[in-house]
Specification:
single chain; 13 strands; three-stranded antiparallel β-sheet; eight-stranded parallel β-sheet; TIM Barrel; alpha/beta
Length: 287
């Protein structure tokens, strides 16, 4: 993608998301660690400045639909990048909250302002659970340019961090002949881009990439690993003293059993409705 085209996309994203102000990050910071070159990658974490590193005890809320409820007493809020406005970002920061912004880096969502900019050749099969979305080819340079523009928007919009979501096209029926190495290269590129923009970066990815990314990513996100009995895959993050944020779907009555298991694993759990609206059932500090 030429610079002028990329600038036009970034401008469109700003107009779609509204005018924002940049605010500093607020929790504990560490220097970015060097990338793990032992798994075939040579990515540099970039930036050079201190980055947010949420620990295992970080409390959180995720809300991707509806009017954002800023009232929960948690350390970190995750909201949709395109739903964050300047006033909401300021409310979070004034209350000492960290703002993480959700970005689907592995799929194209037709309701996004930049959807029409994705080349047809980079759009793959529809997702099974979200048939309006299409898998993206992570090798495509125009896809990467569009994602770089989104990360620039996140930096300018008051996001302290980003969740790099849907990093698993190689393990799905994506419509592309992708390998694990393709998604790993893409993930490392995204992490470097995020860090260069001063953003802490968490990953939501397939289990076979977790160990490789545990050194470079700042935190992880997974859904229903307790219900599916596959939480063990995320232990490399816990071993590195990094937060593993877990979403389980249910109600307040599910909290006692789920919180106990999450605490045993060293993960930070929230119980949500599937619509990911404002409802939240959290866990006590010491269940």
């Amino acid at each position: 993608m030429q610079f002028s085209a990329r600038f036009a996309v970034l401008t469109a994203l700003f107009l779609a998301a509204g005018c924002h102000e940049t605010t500093g990050t607020l929790l504990t910071f560490e220097k970015p660690q060097a990338a793990d070159a032992g798994d075939g990658g040579d990515a540099d974490s970039g930036g050079g400045g201190p980055l947010l590193r949420p620990g295992p005890d970080t409390t959180w809320q995720i809300q991707l639909t509806g009017t954002i409820d800023t009232s929960f007493d948690v350390d970190l809020y995750e909201v949709d990048l395109f739903a964050l406005d300047a006033a909401t970002a300021k409310r979070f920061h004034d209350r000492g909250r960290v703002v993480a912004c959700y970005v689907s880096v592995g799929t194209a969502e037709p309701y996004r302002a930049d959807y029409a900019s994705f080349p047809a050749s980079a759009l793959g099969n529809a997702l099974v659970d979200y048939p309006e979305e299409r898998w993206l080819d992570p090798r495509n340079q125009e896809v990467r340019a569009l994602m770089a523009a989104r990360l620039q928007l996140a930096s300018a919009s008051g996001c302290d961090a980003v969740e790099l979501s849907s990093l698993q096209a190689h393990s799905e029926d994506s419509g592309f002949a992708l390998t694990r190495a393709d998604d790993l290269d893409y993930a490392r590129w995204l992490l470097a881009e995020s860090h260069q923009g001063g953003l802490s970066a968490g990953v939501s990815t397939s289990e076979d990439l977790v160990t490789s990314l545990a050194t470079e990513a700042d935190w992880g996100v997974t859904a229903e690993c307790l219900s599916n009995d596959d939480c063990q895959a995320w232990q490399p993050f816990s071993a590195a003293n990094k937060a593993v944020f877990v979403v389980e779907y249910g109600s307040n009555s599910d909290a006692p059993a789920l919180c106990s298991e999450a605490a045993r694993l060293g993960y930070s759990l929230v119980i949500k409705r599937r619509g990911l609206d404002a409802f939240r059932a959290g866990c006590p500090a010491n269940p």
